[in-house]
# Entry
Amino acid sequence: MPVLDPHPRFILVETSHPGNVGAVARAMKVMGFADLVLVRPRHADVLSQEETVAMASGAADVLTRARIVDRVEDALQGVQHLCATAMTPRDFGPPTVAPRAFFEALGRGAWPPPEAAGTGTGVGHGHADLRRDMGAPRLGFLLGSERYGLSNGDVYRAHVCLSIPTHPDYGSLNLAQAAQLLAYEYRQALGGFEVVGRTTPTQWADAAAVSAVLQHWQQVLWAVGFLDPQAPKKLMPRLQQLLNRTPLAQEEVHLLRGIARAIERAANGAGPHGVREPQAAPGAPEITARTTLD
# Structure
């Protein structure tokens, strides 16, 4: 069964801005990729520049292992299937496909499609035979410079041109953004990563705890005069149905019972900490404000 290369290579051609190199390294690492090659970057020391390292934000190991070469040919050593990225339409060259559709087809062994075989695009029957005989080909993503993108000659080297679907009125993506989208789509094609929950599992209250909440609130509602014990009608059964429709966590049970205790204290004339409020002596002036200490 066809499989995908788990270690694709990201190749940046003539990158100008150090920050983009760092951001691409970060984009790669968060998706589990680490093979980065730079072709003739504007700054020879780009991998160690402060802005590069800052934008890598923890992906310094990707920068440490990255290589700088003088020619695209040198970056392609070991790459068996090259994917160019280009937004500008060309009248000649490899077929243009959206990344997701291409990765899915490649994983099924359905690339190249029959219509592409033998058309001079570099995706003929020989490549299909390679897929059957050797399994997943080594994949490379070729990304051009910020200002000019890829040259026609570099695009012609590729087996396919990947085009990220964007709004028809504005399709300009930052270099690192494009790399992140490619890395994400390819990771998803490989099976993706499991989403790990950040919160602890909820401890749900059982029926006994919910019944105790209702009994507590029944006492409180009697105390404040909201519930007439002589004519309770259907108040408590309705509250029971309300709680049945809304499963309660243990912490929520504690919260409701804490509110009930606070209401009881207020109804009994006690302060917020259970201390009964002093009663004014007959004829004493009314106290309109109380000072509290934090």
